[in-house]
Amino acid sequence: MRRPHTAPTPCYQNPCLTRVPQRMEALRMEADDSATKAEEFKAKVKTLEAETTQKEQEITSLTHRNQVLEGEVEKLETSVKTYKDEAGAGAAAGSQAESMQRKIQVLEEEAEESDRTIRELNEKLRQTDVKAGHFERKVQALEQSRDQWETKYEEMSTKYKETKDELDKFVADMSQI
């Protein structure tokens, strides 16, 4: 609380006292300046606290985002490893496919050679069949000729026996004469 203001005592009475009101005024001004500065500093502190809170929230958000990104990096590294493994398997499969392609080519060449051999054998078989047919006809002709000769032989043999029997009879008849 403030004291009621009393009239200052004249300066000539107390020289120290003449400086007191000036000093008080200076102290009041200094107190007002300090209060103003205190208010400014309080406002600055509030602003800085708000900024600190905002920065802490950003740090928390960035920390969370960093963790999420680290998780994604791990997933991506796993994917990269998987893809590298698959690429290696793909390369092995490509190599195996090339090997199989070469085997297929060799087998196709062998199949073509076998086809050529089969065609040649079929041609030879056909020629053999033609020759066999020709020989069969010859055999049939010869068998027919043989049969004819056998028939003629039998006829001749029969005629010979008959003629011999006649001759024997004639000789016997002649001998009896």
Automatic annotation (TrEMBL):
Keywords: Coiled coil. The keyword Protein biosynthesis does not apply. This is Tropomyosin. Residues 24-173 form a coiled coil. It comes from Massariosphaeria phaeospora. Pfam families: Tropomyosin. The keyword Coiled coil applies. The lineage of its organism: Eukaryota, Fungi, Dikarya, Ascomycota, Pezizomycotina.
